[in-house]
Amino acid sequence: MKINENTNILIVGLGIIGGSYAKGLTKKGLKVHAIDTDRETIEYALANNIIYEGSTEADADLIGAADVVIFALYPHIFKEWIRDNQQYFKSGAILTDVTGVKGCVVYDIQNMLRDDCEYIAAHPMAGCERLGIQNSNEKIFHAANYIVVPTERNTEEAKDVCRQIGKLLRFARISELPPNDHDEMIGFVSQLTHCIAMSLMTCNHTEKLEDYTGDSFRDLTRIARIDETMWSELFLLNKDALLHQMKLFTMEFSKLERMLMEADKEGIKDMMRRSTARRKLFDKEKPEEE
Amino acid sequence: MKINENTNILIVGLGIIGGSYAKGLTKKGLKVHAIDTDRETIEYALANNIIYEGSTEADADLIGAADVVIFALYPHIFKEWIRDNQQYFKSGAILTDVTGVKGCVVYDIQNMLRDDCEYIAAHPMAGCERLGIQNSNEKIFHAANYIVVPTERNTEEAKDVCRQIGKLLRFARISELPPNDHDEMIGFVSQLTHCIAMSLMTCNHTEKLEDYTGDSFRDLTRIARIDETMWSELFLLNKDALLHQMKLFTMEFSKLERMLMEADKEGIKDMMRRSTARRKLFDKEKPEEE
User: Fold this and answer.
1) CB proximity list for A2: less than 8 A, separation 6 or greater
2) Which residue in B69, B39, B68, B76 sits closest to B54, CA to CA?
3) Cβ contacts (< 8 Å) between B255 and chain A: which residues?
4) Most CB atoms closer than 10 Å: which of A65, A72, A243, B108?
5) Within chain B, how many helices (H) and strands (E) appear?
């Protein structure tokens, strides 16, 4: 399937990510349809030409016309939605998603899905601490990673459709990972970092600290503004991988604590050198000029 | 003392912070002199009109002409410098600094200093992960906090000189803290955050993680590039305060770990709500348009 102006695209869930997908794909000249249970969201999206058509309900016609369906829902709602509405899919439709954890979602959905449709998981690694379509912005993808997360059951065609979406949305890098590797990686780079930011934000109750805060503290706590419904669900769905990463971090942090207690200056310096060297690998490529 | 174009200002140490001070003050029309042991640094500063005059040595004339001397040196070098060169100061000179820890520096220097000069500590809470005068940039101060850290021995005049410097450099906020409160605060907002960033950077050796990294991880590890000579010294000079803050953080992080083990969704959500609410206090005021 080659995605072009004749492809019928349906996005289910127009939050910050679904809305940003809609903006990005509409700007590429595609006809984007959407379903969101919130009436104001659909009205806003229509009034601002973010989508071509929309509904607050699982409209059989809208669903049945879609060649590609992109789900941007909470994981448990995503599963329920498939269970309740999969009879409406067009035969041959390709489904994908933006869900932040995969192992606990992908196999369940592939197992319950009709044989004549295909679901392939994907994860756009971008976000925003503000929520809702009003804050959506397709530029959050331009310097970000897009990960296709196929299982053995996925076809080359479906992987290709995902890669096309990643390219249309102008992600800086498109890659592929199996579900388990994805969840381990996400436990480290995304979930552990949110656990750290939250703990840093709540561990010291001194008043007026904000008067003295530098950029370091602001950087480390930007993601401490966190949507508790979404993230508590994501944490618990990836509990084992996350707990493992938390343990690795705690062990390393304790090592530093011990070196400090023992005034082991050389040990601290050595850790700082390793930290500096490893951080250089993670410098971001500059996004194209907008 | 009113700082104006007739005030002779001397900066000792033209690194990233000393250099940024020099640029900012020179742009305000002041005559800035500098001492740095590195010849290239002085040559660069002169060639780029960052300073008016400079020397690689503790030049008696240069020191003796200064009304205000600003020290931007490693803490232990700062103390040695005062011990070795204080005989050259002009009577009535006001000395200040940019050192990141205070308790272990301020009293020692005030105790050893000649009676006819005054040293008042100050801390510009801004920095940069790159080093050296080539990377200096006075704009790093424009949205930042500037803290005057007086003791009971400091005069109103000296405090006022510090505040004038803060204003000339266009800091967003100028405040005052006693040395112990300063060190406790810095242990939390600056040193603890660097310990976290380092531990996060070195706790997981998986290769190719950089291919999948989102903004969260980059934000939390920006400061993992760390000058080991400076920071190991700052950590050890503020050891007790830092260890206390590390303990507070570890306790909070362990609480979250436990809630996750027990799948205590409500507890996790509650912590997320507290984190979100507290983070809002720390949103940065926008700097003026440049």
Assistant:
1) A164
2) B39
3) 199
4) A72
5) 12, 9
Q: Is there a contact between A260 and B252 if contact means CB atoms under 8 Å apart?
A: no
| Distance separating alpha carbons of residues B89 and B66, to the nearest angstrom | 7
Q: Which of B70, B153, B78, B148 is nearest to B110 (CA)?
A: B153
Q: Do A220 and B278 touch (CB under 8 A)?
A: no
Q: Tell me if B228 and A272 make a contact (CB, 8 A cut-off).
A: yes
ipTM of this predicted structure: 0.86
Q: In b/e form, how buried is each residue of A35-53, taking b as 16+ CB within 10 angstroms? A: bbeeeebbebbeeeebbbb
C-alpha to C-alpha distance for A107 and A99, rounded to whole angstroms: 13
| B256, A198 contact by CB (below 8 A) | yes
A·B CB contacts under 8 A: 280
Q: Cβ–Cβ of A253/B251 closer than 8 Å?
A: no
Residue pLDDT, tens place only, A46-65:
999 999 999 999 999 999 99
Q: Which of A63, A60, A6, A5 lies closest to A34 in space, CA to CA?
A: A63
Q: Which two tokens stand for residue B158?
A: 């000296």
SS3 B16: helix
**Interface contact B219-A220, CB threshold 8 A:** yes
Identify the residue whose tokens are 């090592």: A255
Our CA-based measurement puts residue A179 at a distance from the nearest CA of chain B, in whole angstroms, of: 14
The 10s digit of each residue's pLDDT in B54-74 is 999 999 999 999 999 999 999
Query: Residue A239 pairs with which residues in a beta bridge?
Result: none
Q: Enter the pTM of the model.
A: 0.84
Contact between chains at A199 and B261 (C-beta distance less than 8 A): no
**Contact list, B215 vs chain A (CB under 8 Å):** 126-127, 144
DSSP characters for B118-181?
A: EE-EEEEE---SS-SGGG--GGGGTTSEEEEE--TT--HHHHHHHHHHHHHTT-SEEEE--HHH
Nearest-CB residue to A145 (from B201, B203, B211): B211
Which sign does the torsion angle of CA A165, A194, A237, B204 carry? positive
Contact present, A104 and A233 (Cβ < 8 Å): no
Q: Report chain B residues whose CB lies below 8 A from the CB of A186.
A: 212
B274 vs chain A: nearest CA distance in angstroms?
7
